[in-house]
User: What shape does this take?
Amino acid sequence: MLLQILAFCIPLASAVEDVVKEGLRSDDECLDGQCALNAVQLQRALRIPPSCPPFPEPYAPPMDCGRHVQQCGVLAIDTGLGFYGGLNGSKCANSSSPTGCTDQTNPPYSQPRAKVHGLWFETPPYGNSSCLHSHDWDTACQNQSWVFTPEAYCKEQACDSAGIPQCYSVKKLPTCYQGYRGPFAAGAQGELERRYMLWFVNHEWQKHGTCGQQDPTDYFAQVCRLSGPLVRAIDSYRMQGLDNYTDVHAIACKLSKDFDYVEISSTGGSTFGTNGEILLSACLNLATGQWHVAPVSQFERLCGDPAYVRPVL
Ligand SMILES: *[C@@H]1O[C@H](CO)[C@@H](O)[C@H](O)[C@H]1NC(C)=O
Ligand SMILES: *[C@@H]1O[C@H](CO)[C@@H](O)[C@H](O)[C@H]1NC(C)=O
Ligand SMILES: *[C@@H]1O[C@H](CO)[C@@H](O)[C@H](O)[C@H]1NC(C)=O
Ligand SMILES: *[C@@H]1O[C@H](CO)[C@@H](O)[C@H](O)[C@H]1NC(C)=O
Ligand SMILES: *[C@@H]1O[C@H](CO)[C@@H](O)[C@H](O)[C@H]1NC(C)=O
Assistant: This one.
């Protein structure tokens, strides 16, 4: 019986790997629905439970950057299979909430496609990354009034000539944040979505990015470059049938198998109501200014500075 199952699973599973790799090379065609694959077969095959142990969720144990690595963290990618967040969570973990689970702090977790959330330093209690600058939030910058009533906000608070809050470090949306649930809507709704995303990107910068020594342009260029292929891979898994919130673990597992440099630090969980997020270990090489998505075991090699020795607390 066991032999029969193995004989069935192994060739099918490796054929799926090939098809998925093929899909990744021509992902634009695939994403336009023109991928001439045997969708039903693929869907069934992708649902073979992938062989990964459970990942920590929703938080990983504190991350150890390493003795000679000053800064480490996680690249946070949203599969889009979560529930709340954004202007208006489309599904609701709490159906008695009258607002449609709008939390106005997180990105929209329920989306037709995956999207990068951000790149975070694992400072205490999440890990022993250092934070090079203070990241006290500017309260004017955290005020969401600008998103909903920009004219009223700009009468009371400083805005530039384009009507953007002066306290925003990022004035233009980085490429990987250009969109909301798919491309921006037309008209006023689209403008609302754009302002929300610009607020959100500035929130990411103030809360996370400022711990580094980079400027926002460099920081977000790296966020987009590092997340791009991974976001596209997750989209291709979703297109091929891993498209339910229960699949978040399987998606994380496939991602770590298809990209040898990916180590899952934690996932947001695979149950109803969670955020559908996948967090990948990463370290920052301060000499080159480059982040690396990598297993923690590779941090010293990729990001270590012999001149830096982490003080023991
Ligand atoms: C860094 O964090 C890890 C995980 O909490 C811990 O085991 C390690 O001792 C810490 N290193 C130092 C030097 O504090
Ligand atoms: C949120 O959803 C409700 C119900 O679908 C809708 O009436 C409302 O306009 C939405 N609000 C925003 C800000 O999108
Ligand atoms: C659900 O939402 C309602 C209305 O906002 C709130 O009173 C209630 O505490 C929420 N329940 C949970 C479990 O979050
Ligand atoms: C946010 O900005 C608006 C408009 O300037 C202001 O009325 C409101 O008091 C501010 N809220 C906070 C919490 O600062
Ligand atoms: C997702 O999975 C849950 C649990 O198995 C199931 O109840 C739900 O109907 C599924 N949703 C879709 C859209 O298939």
User: Anything to note?
Assistant: The mean pLDDT is 83. Residues 2-25 form the longest helix (24 residues). Residues 244, 246 surround 2-acetamido-2-deoxy-beta-D-glucopyranose (ligand 5) (CB under 6 Å).
